[in-house]
Every structure is written in structure tokens, then in C-alpha cells.
């Protein structure tokens, strides 16, 4: 019997869900059955298996390489992050609205980082601040060190969802600064404020870290508004 388009879609969804359950119990890099084996297992056409495979690739669960077949991928949320970044680029939101999002997220991220950070993460925050201090404020190195610092705070919060959200936001900011008029904040203030945030996190004081992060982000917004009025 010939499969209709809707039947193929339902079957591919069912196969993808079944394989996803298998994948969640497998190790990264482990090989899945071949296309022929999956066709026999699920009693469906190769077209259905290929569509199910495409769905799993879209979800970031597997990789497919010639001669190697389908293997379990390391799930790092990058697919979701890419989609989020695309939505940011297609939105009609302003820079100020994006900074509102950062305020909501990053102020609490800093507070959590103060309570949960590791010694290694403290060292990495200090290293990023030294990179920032040494870099030319008009260079890509300065911008990279700035955004990497904020990502490291997300990591230090101990909550993987924060990092998942912050990466595409930072990618969007990086592209915007590079394509626009350049870095939007006063570099000297940024360096000082980053050091204060790092010190607050090192001290293990969530309230101080929260205040330092909010002070930094609100100052960036004020500076951006002044620049746009000139």
C-alpha cells in the first residue's frame, strides 16, 4: 500500500520518538542501527526512516556522516540556541528591550554565581578581566572578552538554561556591535564594573553581585541612549 504524505509524517514522528528514547540511554558517539535495519525493525519505508533521521538531526540528537551512519551526538543545546538567535534577528525588538532581557536574567545569574561558583570559574573570570584590561577598546578582542565574561557568569550560576539563553544573545550583540557603530559602552567603566562583579562573586555575596551586575547593565543602557541622541 502506498503511504500518503500525512501517513509518512505520522510514521516518521513515531519512529523519531522511539529512536529518541533509545538515544537518551546511549553514549555519545555510539552508532545506531543502519537504515536497512531500522526499516525492518519499524516495518516502514526508507523514506520514513530518512525523515525520522532528519528530525533527530534537527533536534541535535544525532549526526550522520557518509560511511559511518548515524551516531549519538553530544547534546549541548546548540540547535535551540541557533533557533533563538534567529528569532532575535527577525524580531522588531530594540537594543533597549534586549537589555531589559539581560537585566532580568543576568542580575540573578550573578547572584547565583556568587553562591555556586567554583575556584576554577573564579580564575577564568579573572583571566577574562585581564584580557579585557589589556585589549584595545575598539578591537574585537575587547568585545569577545566582555561577552565571554558574561557567559562565564552564566556557567558559574550552575544553571545550564542560563548559558543556553545567553549564548545566542551574546552572538546577536557581537554581530550588532560589529556591523554597527562599534562597542556601545565606555570601555574604562566596563573594565571597572567587570572587576567589581568578579570581586562580588568571589566574595560569595549574592546581594553585592546582584547590585554590581545591575549597575553595569543599566549604565550600558544609559550610555547607549546618549549615543543615539547625539
UniProtKB/TrEMBL annotation:
Instruction: Outline the extent of the HTH gntR-type domain.
Output: 5-75
Report the SUPFAM superfamilies cross-referenced here: GntR ligand-binding domain-like, Winged helix' DNA-binding domain
A Pfam match: FCD
- Its signal peptide is none
Which domain of life, per UniProt? Bacteria
Q: Does the keyword Transcription regulation apply?
A: yes
For whether the record's keyword set contains Transcription, the answer is yes
GO MF term (any one)? DNA-binding transcription factor activity
Write the record's keywords in alphabetical order, separated by commas: DNA-binding, Transcription, Transcription regulation
This protein is called what? GntR family transcriptional regulator
Source organism: Mycobacterium aquaticum
Amino acid at each position: 500500500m502506498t503511504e500518503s504524505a500525512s501517513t509518512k509524517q505520522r510514521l516518521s514522528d513515531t519512529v523519531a520518538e522511539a529512536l529518541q528514547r533509545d538515544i537518551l540511554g546511549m553514549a555519545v558517539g555510539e552508532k545506531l542501527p543502519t537504515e536497512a535495519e531500522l526499516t525492518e525493525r519499524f516495518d516502514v519505508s526508507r523514506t520514513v526512516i530518512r525523515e525520522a533521521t532528519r528530525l533527530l538531526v534537527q533536534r541535535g540528537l544525532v549526526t550522520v556522516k557518509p560511511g559511518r551512519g548515524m551516531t549519538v551526538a553530544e547534546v549541548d543545546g546548540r540547535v535551540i540556541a541557533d533557533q533563538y538567535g534567529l528569532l532575535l534577528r527577525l524580531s522588531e525588538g530594540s537594543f533597549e528591550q534586549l537589555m531589559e532581557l539581560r537585566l532580568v536574567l543576568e542580575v540573578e545569574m550573578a547572584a547565583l554565581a556568587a553562591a555556586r561558583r567554583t575556584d576554577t570559574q573564579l580564575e577564568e573570570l579573572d583571566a577574562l578581566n585581564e584580557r579585557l584590561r589589556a585589549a584595545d577598546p575598539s578591537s574585537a578582542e575587547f568585545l569577545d572578552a566582555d561577552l565571554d565574561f558574561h557567559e562565564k557568569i552564566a556557567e558559574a550560576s550552575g544553571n545550564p538554561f542560563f548559558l543556553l539563553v545567553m549564548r545566542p544573545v551574546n552572538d546577536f550583540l557581537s554581530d550588532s556591535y560589529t556591523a554597527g557603530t562599534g562597542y556601545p559602552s565606555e570601555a574604562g567603566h566596563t573594565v571597572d564594573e567587570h572587576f567589581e562583579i568578579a570581586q562580588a562573586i568571589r566574595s560569595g555575596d549574592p546581594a553585592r553581585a546582584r547590585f554590581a551586575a545591575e549597575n553595569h547593565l543599566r549604565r550600558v543602557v544609559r550610555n547607549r541612549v546618549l549615543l543615539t541622541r547625539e
